Amino acid sequence: MDIITNKAQLLHLLKQQIPNIDAVCDEPMKNHTSFHIGGNADIFVSVKSEAEIISCINFFKEHDVAVTIIGNGSNLLVSDDGIEGAVVCIGKGFSDVSCNGCEIKAEAGVLLSRIANIALEHALTGFEFASGIPGSLGGAIVMNAGAYGGEMKDCVVTTRYLDNDGNICQCSGDEHAFGYRKSRFKDGEIILSATIKLMQGDSEQIKAEMRSLAEKRREKQPLEYPSAGSTFKRPEGAFAAKLIDDAGLRGYSIGDAAVSDKHCGFVINKGEASFEDVIALMDHIKTTVREKFGFELEPEVRILGR
To answer: How much is the average pLDDT of 161-175?
Structure first.
């Protein structure tokens, strides 16, 4: 089906096949990314259950419609031309959490901050590092998100996911193949839920650590501006932010996209930055750092678009 000319018809068929599905046409992606940048998705679906996820994927495959999976949108840069096909958002509608002993089981759409607060409520330590990361569980597992010395690999013990053939699978432990900002999960595979194993701790110490990390973020990161977090991965043997600063790029801007004065590892949206502004700035940063220091910076932000 030609998605461009038949969006309304496709949406009608989707809602007929999956009753009560939350889906719309021409949804602005800037409303679903922390960068506040991005054109329209042809069809935007917010799922509420595993059954809806599987039904949606099967429906779009049947109609030969490309599917893009997103979570909380905190690590995304979306083209101003939008996203062709369907965007399936695994977010707050798919975020059940339960705690049993030292294990927390959570659906993929739950925010990491919520998991951290539930861990605190049960005096479980080991997830404090993630309390200020703005993403959701699914995306955090795919990229092995981390901060302040902790990573998802330190606490995720099992993950349930939908593979490219539509099978529900599970992996455990080393099968995750966690590395620096990477895992075993391929494009098209969808995290459904995971089990996180923590340790019994002291509630007051956990709370104090979370407060301390929150204060560090406020002091060192440009939280007052839209961004997608750290723009580049840490290159082996160096730190992206220091390389960018040493290259003389602190505060450098193209349009409303700028290298943060507060933390050079962040490209920020100072107001009305376009996708092209950010891409041009990222390219300039990469070229300058390569020419001055010989390091090849690799984006940590996920870039999506037509």
So the answer is: 95
Per-residue pLDDT tens for 55-95?
A: 999 999 999 999 999 999 999 999 999 999 999 999 999 99
Beta carbons within 8 Å of 214's beta carbon, 6+ residues apart: 131, 132
193 noted as active-site residue: no
C-alpha distance from residue 5 to each of 42, 283, 291 (Å): 10, 34, 46
Q: DSSP states of 152-173 as a string?
A: GGGTEEEEEEE-TTS-EEEEEG
Q: Locate all alpha helices (DSSP H) within the chain, ordered by sequence.
A: 7-17, 50-62, 112-121, 137-142, 203-220, 240-246, 275-293
Distance CA 169, CA 191 (A): 10
Residue 234 known to be catalytic: no
CATH numbers and ranges of domains, the chain:
7-89 (3.30.43.10), 97-205 (3.30.465.10), 223-304 (3.90.78.10)
Reply yes or no on whether 175 is catalytic. Answer: no
Active-site hit among 79, 95, 183, 230: 230
pLDDT score at 5 = 59
φ, ψ for residue 49, nearest 5 deg: -160, 165
Residue of 114, 181, 217, 302 marked active site: 181
The pLDDT of residue 188: 87
Tokens of residue 284, six digits: 């300039």
CA distance 58 to 144: 27
**Catalytic site residue from 27, 84, 128, 300:** 300
Q: What is the pLDDT of residues 39-56, one digit of tens each?
A: 999 999 999 999 999 999
The answer to whether the beta carbons of residues 240 and 234 sit under 8 Å apart is yes
Burial of 46 (0-12, 13-18, 19+ CB in 10 A): buried
